[in-house]
Amino acid sequence: MTKRVAILISGGGSNMVALAQSMRGDHPARPVLVMSNDPQAGGLAKARSLHIPTLAIDHKPYGKDRSGFEAALHKALQTARPDIICLAGFMRILTAEFMAKWEGRMLNIHPSLLPKYKGLHTHARALEAGDTEHGCTVHEVTAALDDGPILGQARMSMQADDTPQTLAARLLPLEHALYPAVLRRFAAGDRTPVTLQG
Ligand code: GRF
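^ thats the input. predicted complex w/ 5-O-phosphono-beta-D-ribofuranosylamine below
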């Protein structure tokens, strides 16, 4: 049976586009919803142009009421009935309670070679550490931030004159290759990690 995929974004949605465009032909999954916590997210228009239903649930009116925001998110997801949820540049931290409801069905892409550099500013931190290699990771989402079983990694060498900006720019095409490759395997029930070299 074809798997239903919901993609959660907060920004430009380039990873969402890569995922959506990969779900064609004999792919075991199809996108059913693109949802954003930011009604202005550029990715929403891109999703509409790909004929994917979209929804914005603005987190701001909820203020500190995280569970109210998550209840709205959960309700929308229940309506869309996804088998798989892909977080793709979704910039809200989700509570353990919310994640437990979707455990085993939620993936995330993180711009570092996890377990290194959980959280923000991953490119700057890789530079500060003097790393010679950087990359991105797709992992299953569990209650701990940027943790959970690793489903794929793409690696690239760092150069002497790299900046956080050049690293981000070189890494993004690798993210666009890795996430669809992992999703295809995951949707087919295969959790063997994908390894790519940039
Ligand atoms: C990506 O670098 C992703 O790894 C990070 O946020 C960025 C999202 O970019 N979590 P986009 O919205 O997919 O273009």
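The chain has a mean pLDDT of 97.
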